Amino acid sequence: MIVLALDTALNATSVAVLDGERVLAARSEPMERGHQERVAGIVRDAVAEAGVGFDRLERIGVTVGPGSFTGLRVGLAFAKGLALALDIPCMGVGTLEALAASVGAPGVVGAVVDARRGQLYVQFFQEGEPLEPPAALTAAEAKARLDRLGGPVTLVGSGAGLLALSPSVTIDPRLFADPVALARLTLRAAEPIPRPEPLYLRAPDARTIAERAAAL
């Protein structure tokens, strides 16, 4: 199966194309903003590098959050639109799941993203399986969960260094998911593929005029 995976949820725009387990193309461009301007070009270039053509894609995967509200919407809209045009399934992958899968370390892996405003997006996995749902936590709450796990843990993500660490904790320095890991999660997902929906763990900072008026 030939799959394309796309991530704009954090501080990069990343794309990978796989034919089964074989990597045909993988690209990542770190960026805080500007995902909307770059996503189409990066996808185009990755598919061209893969040498397969859009018509041979069989499944699309996209990160659904948590992450940047704007980035999530950009990635989801593009992936859904492309899947609709090609008449192929589009599936959502949790940002924290993709981030943890990028590490490849045995044992427990914690994906920790700095959500700002005193919060972290946190989820722990063991051998790739989630130990709990993703959550928005304070650093103290996240540290308490970490302490309860015990034993060696690998932390990955922009918020990993914000936790009080112990000798049993290792930090992986990556700040966004490896698109190849995301593509492999896309490849291995069983049918039927549910419609991807954004995963928001808190209300957006920006609101429409109507939303602001309703809150008065």
Topology summary:
Blueprint: E1 2-7, E2 12-19, E3 22-30, H1 35-50, E4 59-63, H2 69-86, E5 90-93, H3 95-101, E6 108-116, E7 119-126, E8 129-130, E9 135-137, H4 139-149, E10 153-156, E11 169-172, H5 179-188, H6 209-214
Parallel strand pairs: 1-4, 4-5, 6-10, 10-11
Antiparallel strand pairs: 1-2, 2-3, 6-7, 7-8, 7-9
Helix pairs in contact: 1-2
Multimer state: single chain
CATH class of the largest domain: Alpha Beta
Terminal Cα span: 51 Å
Shape: globular
Count the DSSP helices.
Answer: 6
Into which percent range does the helicity of residues fall? 25-40%
CATH topology of the largest domain: Nucleotidyltransferase, domain 5
What about the largest sheet?
6 strands, mixed
Runs with pLDDT <50, length 5+? 206-212
CATH superfamily of the largest domain: ATPase, nucleotide binding domain
Rg from C-alpha positions? 17 Å
Give the overall average pLDDT.
91
Which structural class should the secondary elements be placed in? alpha/beta
Short summary:
The chain has 216 residues and is α/β, with parallel strands linked by helices.
Key structural traits:
216 residues; Nucleotidyltransferase, domain 5; alpha/beta; 5-stranded mixed β-sheet; 6-stranded mixed β-sheet; 31% helix; 6 helices; 2 domains
